[in-house]
Amino acid sequence: MQVIRLCLAVPMFCFGLAACAEQPGAPASGGAARAVGPITEEKGPWREQDHWIPVEGTSQFILMRLCRPAGGNPARLVVANHGSPPSAAQRPNMAPWSCEQRAISWFLTRGYAVALPLRRGYGASGGTETARDIRSAIAYATAQPGIRRDGAVVVGQSAGGWGSLALAARNPPEVAAIVNMAGGRGGRLDNLPNNNCRADVLATSAGQFGQTARIPSL
Q1: Are 33 and 77 in contact (CB under 8 A)?
Q2: Which pLDDT belongs to residue 184?
Q3: How many Cα neighbours within 13 Å face the side chain of 205?
Q4: Which helix (H) or strand (E) holds 63?
Q5: With contact defined as beta carbons under 8 Å apart, do 78 and 134 qualify?
Q6: Terminal CA-to-CA distance of the chain, rounded, Å?
Q7: C-alpha span between 206 and 180 (Å, rounded)
Q8: How far is CA 127 from the centre of its chain?
């Protein structure tokens, strides 16, 4: 039943991400010095709060928004991963999605906590390595009070979906399922949609991910 519910959520979620992934916004930190931990107060019904989180194996940080459901029971975690905008010039202006965004609140109303990492190279974050950034978001979020340390669901669209598949190849024990929507990279060669610069490399990489991935994926 849980899988069926996730399947029904995918079209709505993908539409929601497409509508907001390129949404510009000032960095949620307001330019504050970076240190691990929360950088804003909790606000709104979903206790929306921004955090600087460490990227595992590096000295870098990324920005992550954490949204919490109502109730006192430990919540399973959903990590929702944004795609890439059509133009790289838009990346510095990106900000995490709002907890009120429909695709995010769908999970919150069903008792999930939602982490919204802004990966390196976007907005106030900076750098590369999508799967490592997602894994770092999971590690940080599952260490927070009121969030379960197991059973996480990783959801991603476009570049975020591709990073989710790369993460699946590493089989992190906290993750129970992967939802990939139109995952890929390099799909706008010469600024033309669906014009991939190296489809052969994507196919080869997908095969490599599949050789080791054992997490159920949709």
Answers
A1: no
A2: 83
A3: 15
A4: strand 61-67
A5: no
A6: 14
A7: 12
A8: 15
DSSP class of 210: H
Site of tokens 């039943």? 1
DSSP, collapsed to helix, strand or coil, labels residue 153 as: strand
d(CA 125, CA 63): 6
Give me the residues paired with residue 178 across strands. Answer: 154, 217
Share of the chain above pLDDT 70, in %: 81
Name 54's bridge partners: 61
Report the distance separating Cα 140 and Cα 180, nearest Å: 22
Residue closest to 140 by CA, chosen among 157, 126, 152: 152
Q: Is the pTM of this model over 0.85?
A: no
Instruction: Tell which CATH architecture fits domain 2-212.
Output: 3-Layer(aba) Sandwich (3.40)
- Residue 200 to residue 189: CA distance in whole angstroms: 14
Distances, alpha carbon 124 to alpha carbons 44, 112, 167, in Å: 23, 26, 23
